[in-house]
Amino acid sequence: MYDTPFRAERDVSAKDTKIAAREVQVYYGDTHAIKDVSVDILDKTVTAFIGPSGCGKSTFLRCINRMNDTIDIARIEGLIEIDGEDIYDRRVDPVQLRAKVGMVFQKPNPFPKSIYDNVAYGPKIHGLAKNKAELDEIVEKALRRGAIWDEVKDRLDAPGTGLSGGQQQRLCIARAVATEPEVLLMDEPCSALDPIATGQVEELIDELRQDYSVVIVTHSMQQAARVSQKTAFFHLGNLVEYGDTDKIFTNPQDSRTESYITGRIG
Amino acid sequence: MSDAANPASPAASNNGARSIHTVDARTKKRNASEKRFKYYGIAAIATGVFFLVVLLGSILWNGVSAFQQTYLEVPVYLDPERLDRENPSSATTFTYNPLIAEAVWERAQELGFGDEFEDEGGMSPLISASAAAIIRDRVIANPDLIGETIDVRILAGSRVDGYLKGRVDRDSASRDRNIDVAHLELVDAMQENGSIRKVFNWDFITGTDASESRAEQAGIGVAMLGSFFMMLVVLGLSLPIGVATSIYLEEFAPKNKFTDLIEVNISNLAAVPSIVFGILGLAVFIQFMHLPQSAPLVGGLVLTLMTLPTIIISTRASLQSVPPSIRAAALGVGASKMQSVFHHVLPLALPGILTGTIIGLAQALGETAPLLLIGMVGYIATNYPDGIASGFLDPNSAMPAQIYEWAKRADPAYYERAWGGIIILLVFLFAMNAIAILLRRRFERRW
Fold first, then answer.
1. CB-based contact (8 Å) between B16 and chain A?
2. Whether A17 contacts A42, CB under 8 Å
3. Reported pTM
């Protein structure tokens, strides 16, 4: 692959736990999709979930902001805490949770509205802006964070769907950060992008780490190695190995992890 | 160039391999069947187009003449001796009839007719029975006309109208007690002289229904109003109920046996014959709820029942066509279910919903069977509704029911009116479908 201009720092010892999962089970009808997953995800860190297709990494990601609630047959057991609060507690409104845990999807999915409205929508429904000026400020800040401001500042009224794939994905990231989340979930955010757009998004992910706990699902091990500090390897619904990215890729403890990263299973 | 000199030539390299320059039997067969299938398709479309042309052609052929009406143009002297200027409504149409007949008689004598008819009484087959009432209304509106000779258009009788349109000829007139061949001679002379003319028939479009013997006066206007008020009821009820039902079923309802049952029932309701809805309306709205008979309100309610499944099915289809990624995106930024539906899904589904609604309305507009059962048919459409409430509640007819009613009547003049009514109905249906297509073109979003 190509060389990345940045090198993710590996010192994560002093970070707090942001998301704590304990013995999480997910069932889709009769299928046991996630088995006994326990993991601590740190704040201000990029955590990568890797594993072969169908291993449950996306399913687990979607548990963290309760997107699985929208699937009728999905059933979740176990405990997931964010900042020490159980997100599956009866008092939790998933809407409030999702304002705190933003999500970026595999396929760029901007609303078929203007670029401005795409970003402004979240802050509007959460009442983050008192007036138009404040909203403008939030939108600009989010677009700058999404590293797309310079490309779209002159055409904020243009439809978001008219941008290129890479721009759309960065718009979606801007939309996700506009609601001031604390955790950012990314489900294979670069799978629909070309290498150049992928590079831009990866650079962006590394910057976002300063403010958020970023969890990224990826099929590309090179990507996991480039952007993440922590890596979790999933296989057949199990969390096989979780640790510092350096360690996972250079000195995996489990034979399955080793087989996967060397390309023997997948 | 020989093959030996050029070993790269195709002929040389094709030694023993399958040639793609000769079509093998299997490919030939496949191509032939493909071609055959294409011809079947073209034949099917050609048949369809042929029947469509025949249908539209026969409708126009039979119906266009309804848009012209024959009038006599002779000056009528409003004799002050017989009409009271102070109290113009005291004179009935019996007073006016001779005035008109005399005016026509005078013109007939000017043209050299006379012996055949004895006196002005012989003129009555030329004049519509409604002509006196039309002139009387005009005099009542403006009593100063009394004592003057006015140039007025006198509605001609339906036989005269038929003669000018080719429906009546000398042969049929000789067997007709209502008109003689001599009258037709007079009509010919008057037409040459300019006293009988066909003009565009606004009264057919705006007018009221008329009795069996006055086909020349009948119009579809009141029935059009009846249809209009019914469509208001249908639109006002079926759009909100249908859209709300669809949104609930599609976006909120859990998928279980009960909602499955509802779904199956909605699909089945769409296929229920409309007369069943008619008898349901008769039983529930009229016999049980005692709503007024023959009223557009009841007609609208019945047609609402009929239109709902259509609207629900098309609305659900357009909600389903909104990509799930839009819903995920909305939920992902923390929108509630309702916000995601109303801010994102519904606007994208709107063109489809509107199209479905308009098509449902068009269907309801052309529906006759249920109206027969709730009494929205018959000789009732003779008065314009006065005001909104009476528009909904007073007995009225509807366009298709009026057409059915005309088609039943004996006078061939009504046959022509029925076809004319069909043209008007089709114009409305085409207009509604055109609006549906425009809406779809205009608001369709791509993502």
1. no
2. yes
3. 0.80
Cα(first)–Cα(last) distance of chain A, in Å? 19
User: In this complex, which of B255, B326, B334 lies closest to A125 when CB atoms are compared?
Assistant: B334
Q: State yes or no: pLDDT of B5 exceeds 80.
A: no
Torsion of CA A175, A176, A177, A178, to 10 degrees: 40
Would you call A65 and B329 a contact, using CB atoms and an 8 Å cutoff?
no
What is the ipTM score, two decimals?
0.84
Q: How many residues does chain B have?
A: 447
Q: What is the count of structural domains for chain A? A: 1
Does the pLDDT value for residue A96 go beyond 90? no
Give the relative orientation of helices B274-281 and B296-320 as an angle to the nearest 10 degrees: 130
Residue A178: inside a domain = no
In this predicted model, what pLDDT tens digit does every residue of B89-114 receive, in sequence order? 888 888 888 888 888 888 888 888 87
Minimum CA–CA partner of A168 in chain B: B447
Which residue of chain B is at minimal alpha-carbon distance from A62?
B332
Collect contacts of B118-122 with beta carbons under 8 A, ≥24 apart: none
Q: Are A149 and B364 in contact (CB under 8 A)?
A: no
Interface residue of B331, B333, B444, B445 to substitute, partner A, most A CBs within 10 Å: B333
Segments forming the whole domain that contains residue A84: 17-109+183-261
Sort strands B149-155 and A46-50 into parallel, antiparallel or unpaired: unpaired
Is-contact A56 A33, C-beta < 8 A? yes
CATH number of the domain to which A76 belongs: 3.40.50.300
Is residue A5's pLDDT more than 70? no
| Residue A152 maps to a domain | no
Task: Tell me the chain B residues in contact with residue A161 when contact means C-beta distances shorter than 8 Å.
Answer: 446-447
For A156-204, write each residue's pLDDT tens digit.
999 998 898 889 999 999 999 998 899 999 998 888 888 888 888 898 8
The answer as to whether A138 is a domain residue is no
Q: Is residue A50 part of a domain?
A: yes
3-state secondary structure of B342: helix
pLDDT digits (tens, 9 = 90+) for B289-306: 999 888 899 999 999 999
- The residue in chain B having the minimum alpha-carbon distance to the alpha carbon of residue A121 is B333
Q: How many residues does chain A have?
A: 266
